[in-house]
What does this fold into?
Amino acid sequence: MATKSNQAKFDVKKQLEVVEEQFQTLQILNEEGEIVNEAAMPDLTDEQLQELMKRMVYTRILDQRSISLNRQGRLGFYAPTAGQEASQLASQYALEKEDFILPGYRDVPQLIWHGLPLYQAFLFSRGHFKGNQIPEGVNVISPQIIIGAQYVQAAGVALGMKKRGAKSVAVTYTGDGGTSQGDFYEGINFAGAFKAPAIFIIQNNRFAISTPVEKQSAVSSLAQKAVAAGIPGIQVDGMDALAVYSAVKEARERAINGEGPTLIETLTYRYGPHTMAGDDPTRYRTSDLDNEWELKDPLVRFRKFLEGKKLWNEEMENKTIEQAKDDIKEAIKKADAEPKQKVTDLISNMYEEMPNNLVEQYEIYKEKESK
Amino acid sequence: MAQLTMIQAITEAMRTELKNDENVVVFGEDVGANGGVFRATENLQKEFGEERVFDTPLAESGIGGLAIGLSLQGFRPVMEIQFFGFLYEVMDSVSGQMARMRYRSGGRYNSAVTIRLPFGGGVHTPEMHADSLEGLVAQQPGLKVVIPSSPYDAKGLLISAIRDNDPVIFLEHMKLYRSFREEVPEEEYTIPLGKAAVKREGKDLSIITYGAMVRESLKAAEELEKEGFSVEVVDLRSIAPLDVETIVASVEKTGRAIVVQEAQKQAGIAASVVAEITERAILSLDAPVLRVTAADTVFAFSEAEQVWLPNYKDIMETAKKVLTF
It folds into this structure.
């Protein structure tokens, strides 16, 4: 008897190809700083373009100085950011002050540009609670160490904004490795189910410590993970400031118009190690790959683009660099001047009203501290 | 005053706070139109609307994250995790995140979240429904853990929990939901968190306990009275923080104590209570402080609950050991 069991019921290969086609990389500026997608060009004034460049240069210097201060023992935990300036800063640049940022541990620059004083960012690195005492009116929370937790929390912040009728969004960041977490999926799925104004950004720098993205998942793009939540997913060239800005701006518009969340994957790279805690990228990355990505440097192409428009020159660049160095020096001084933490401080920060056990322990430590 | 079951008292507490404070939001799996799998949120959505009382996708971790985020936006979330055994799915949101929020932000942010979780044995639930995991959360700085044993306590403690500006775990014993009624005032009232209640006065022995074991202990105390022993029963009501003052005062009076919990011996919080008594009242003790607990196995298959769960007979047996030491 003839059977159909050998016949494929579904064209599974086609299925994967069709999905892949839906997630083409959005690029506006190529590596030479040329506009390759005029239609997607964001509406930015000359001053805004210069400001964005300034922030990227400043942040590159901040990274270099942070690495060096870390090596001198003047900073603690530090996750390098060089290479990700377009991804981090152009996305933040598309936000408004009332938008709330839930960063991962590498996303300190976004907080700084959203209003966190630099010396507090340094205190965060050193491990001082004052680094996390975000000033009133600055809508950020300190960097999240548990990978994925910021995603489920972002869904909650966004739902809160929606319930308040606010025209603002919750924005959160994770890396490529973080897309394998359950909280990553739950976060985008909750925001989708509640049609909450959230922007979920995946900064795909190809490595989670030493594990390449290919070992995280068999998907052809991380952006397509949005499909599982029934929300839009966009893949952008994360070394292209204009593409990142444009994608985030659009996602923000959709969100505040009540159309729900967006997942944005930025294709980027970190030039440095995973963190300064002894990671050595030469153990898992080839110099060929490093070189290939250095050609894509977001600063190089944006500089070329602006120079072509006569909006940027060496003098402006040097002025920015000097400004950054001065600010960093001041901020470190200010961080140094912060009083040392005491156990009584830590106890006081636990609850609004101290429970009995802490009342007792507070007295014990107060006595010790007075000696 | 009305005669209410514990579940009705819990609903009343949520209704009171939904009415009192527009920032209170109640959510979880099936808490909306369905009114909760135990009817704890019955009619609340009808009364307060879907904006205030709503269902979530089936994902405990997401529910925890939602509560944290809503709290960051000034809401006062009352989230439900359908059964305590599912806590593991949301352990990071609870212990890793909201418990630390105030501390990690140096007081800039807080998590004014109440987490309601049904638990407890004796009703033949399937796996991972009845486990007593209060010991896990009691070990996390930043949390408060409350376990009422009666309708009156449940209402007053839940109102306090919802008004507290730090995260509170509110554990509801399933066997106590409908097993008896009690006078519960219709008006709002609060019971302070961290305060125990002496449920029966006595002078020969202190039984320190919580949850469903309060009723078993009261029954044991009655039986022991027939044999000539005067037994005091202290219901902890909050297991974190512990009301050390009330515990110690009782032990100093009686000179003998046992600690009774439904959890396994290696779990729960009985060991902490013993340690506190040892540190603070050893000179008042005429006998060692013994514990009544379940055996150190995984929670019993439902047909084995009866032989596995501690009951008043186990309490009497241990009480006599201490009384005749």
